[in-house]
Amino acid sequence: MSVQILNLNPCYDHWVIISNVPKTPNVLRGDYVVKLVDGKGLNIARVFNLLGFHDYLCINVLGGDVGKIISSKCREENIKTAEFWINDENRINTAVVYEYEKRMLMVNEPGPVMTPDEIERFIQYLDSVIEEKSTLVISGSAPRGFTANNMSRIAQMAKERGCRLMIDISGEWLRKLVKFEPEMVKVNADEFKIAFELSNLSVEKLYEVKKRYKINVLCVTLGKDGSITLTEDRVFHAKPKLVHCDFSVGSGDSFFAGYLYKEAMGKSMEERLIFATACGMANTLKYGAAIFDLKDLNEQLPLVEIAEERL
């Protein structure tokens, strides 16, 4: 597989849609529910499928009855997965969408705990799965018990095999993984500022981090304001002309998937970022993470502005 995706903390999401003001105080009754498998890696895989790109493998850590549901739903969606099973139960996350107020509340369970033995066996398992000179996407959180040092061992293994690291992660894990000279770091602005203790995101500050850790492509997403991307000698600002709504869960993953897809196709940086931004915009049109169709996507492409300047 040319793209291998680590999805260490998958979940099963319930989006409960409340269309009108509840008649009974403190009791919420949904008008309908959207159920889907989630986790950053699975969201990327779902977008890959939509785009007709199948040269990937999503590596899931699964456990318990919820893990069985995730496994079954992945098969239903024809998501290409490899599965490593643990004893503890995967998480169920709930999004309560107050449609009448155009707002939502996301409730995330803490998720499973991996034992030291399970972690060791998982790393050994990856040793048999990660292919030479492939692209390894490390995206999202990990089960409790799984440390930044464990993640570093995986990154080291991948680098020794000539893999390209594409990273979308936060906090201590991000600070650890940038030391392995990743091909790309895609992270949202708040996470980036926290990880590197920055008060602002000037081009100078971003370039300093990029240069220090020898990151080939650094992309910081800015929500409604699009993204800023630094390459070897260029800065790209991509921005949507129109923001449809605030239901943005999964937009960052959709953006990343769109970028990875166009990169695999050998497209220019400008084409990658326009397409990635359109994927993130299309994600806001329907409930659920990485849920949109090609019509949604194609309608967004003309609505992306991009500017380029020299570093």
TrEMBL record:
Gene3D superfamilies documented for this protein: 3.40.1190.20
Domain Carbohydrate kinase PfkB stretches: 8-291
Record-level GO cellular component terms: cytosol
Organism, scientific name: Pseudothermotoga hypogea
Example of a GO MF term: ATP binding
Family: Belongs to the carbohydrate kinase PfkB family.
Protein known as: Ribokinase
Keyword entries, A-Z: ATP-binding, Kinase, Nucleotide-binding, Transferase
